[in-house]
Write a structure and sequence with these properties.
The chain is mainly α. The protein has one domain (about 5-105). It has helices spanning about 5-10, 25-50, 65-85, 100-105.
């Protein structure tokens, strides 16, 4: 699946916490979200801060665009994380465990069908 198709698929299925998501879909969307956040943060710290009378990169400068971007990406990312857990034949609630989460997000899922799809 291409980068744009993976990102579009994550956005279309943002509220769908059923089924499975492969590693590529997750990492492509995460790269998209981080790149978008960095662009929004740059916009906030340089362009928006100057327009509102702050010095560029001032600590108290508003970060409206970057915070809005984070809010927009939160639901699709949460959905992808839960579906990654399903790809390992585990409950989506396991995503709350910060100890095993990095491993499960990066490891291959189960081959063939499992109880989640």
């Amino acid at each position: 699946m291409s980068f744009l198709r993976a990102v579009g698929n994550a956005i279309v299925h943002a509220a769908d916490f059923r089924g499975r998501a492969n590693r590529r879909d997750f990492w492509f969307f995460l790269a998209f979200a981080v790149a978008g956040w960095l662009a929004a943060l740059t916009f906030d710290l340089f362009y928006l801060a100057e327009r509102l009378g702050f010095m560029p990169m001032e600590e108290d400068a508003p970060r409206w665009a970057s915070n809005a971007w984070l809010l927009l990406c939160a639901l699709p990312l949460a959905s992808l994380v839960v579906r990654r857990m399903h790809d390992h034949d585990r409950s989506g609630w396991l995503a709350l465990s910060v100890i095993v989460l990095p491993y499960l997000l990066s490891a291959k899922g189960t081959k063939g069908p499992n109880r989640y799809g």
